[in-house]
């Protein structure tokens, strides 16, 4: 998720489900130009992936809920994330959902739970 205040990207989830075989082939092709040897200074992560990428590609994901997370640098996480099948080529990385927007979603989710 993008943090406009600091112009950095923070982690909120790891997604590995929802991809068809065709999606995975396309994902590899789309990510290739963004491949890096090390983490971008614009990315804040406590995790060490096998491969780093410069922020550039936006994918649409959904999940069961948003929870507080000590692992992800946004402080929250999308639980049980799944790729929707949409590569958002119409958006740049700064147009993706922001950390602030995710926190607002989390607060709305809490209000729904309290009202139930």
Polypeptide structure, described:
24% of the residues lie in helices and 25% in strands. It is of the alpha+beta class and 116 residues long. The strands form 4 sheets. It has a 3-stranded mixed β-sheet with strand order 1-2-4, with no helix packed on it. Strands 3-5 form a two-stranded antiparallel ribbon. The chain has a two-stranded antiparallel sheet with strand order 6-9.
What's the structural blueprint in terms of helices and strands?
Elements: E1 2-3, E2 8-10, H1 21-31, E3 35-36, E4 43-44, E5 52-53, E6 59-62, E7 65-68, E8 76-79, E9 82-87, H2 99-115
Parallel strand pairs: 2-4
Antiparallel strand pairs: 1-2, 3-5, 6-9, 7-8
Q: Kindly report the CATH topology.
A: OB fold (Dihydrolipoamide Acetyltransferase, E2P)
How many domains make up the 3D coordinates?
A: 1
- What count of helical segments does DSSP give? 2
CATH second-level architecture: Beta Barrel
* Number of E-type strands: 9
Low-confidence blocks of residues: none
Estimated share of beta-strand residues: 25-35%
User: What would you report as the Rg, rounded to the nearest angstrom?
Assistant: 15 Å
The end-to-end span amounts to 29 Å
Order of strands across the main sheet: 1-2-4
Q: Main β-sheet: number of strands, strand sense, barrel status?
A: 3 strands, mixed
Order of helices and strands: EEHEEEEEEEH
- CATH superfamily membership: Nucleic acid-binding proteins
Helical content (DSSP H or I, runs of 4+) = 10-25%
The overall pLDDT average reads 95
Q: What is the molecular shape?
A: globular
Q: Which structural class matches the secondary elements?
A: alpha+beta
Which class in CATH terms?
Mainly Beta
């Amino acid at each position: 998720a993008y943090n406009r205040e600091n112009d950095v990207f923070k982690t909120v989830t790891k997604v590995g489900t929802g991809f068809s075989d065709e999606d995975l082939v396309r994902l590899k092709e789309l990510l290739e130009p963004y491949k890096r040897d090390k983490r971008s200074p614009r990315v804040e992560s406590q995790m060490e992936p096998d491969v780093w990428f410069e922020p550039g590609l936006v994918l649409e994901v959904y999940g069961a809920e948003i929870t507080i997370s000590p692992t992800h640098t946004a402080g929250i996480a999308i639980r049980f994330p799944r790729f929707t099948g949409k590569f958002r080529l119409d958006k740049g990385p700064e147009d993706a959902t922001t950390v602030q927007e995710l926190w607002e979603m989390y607060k709305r989710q809490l209000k729904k739970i309290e009202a139930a």
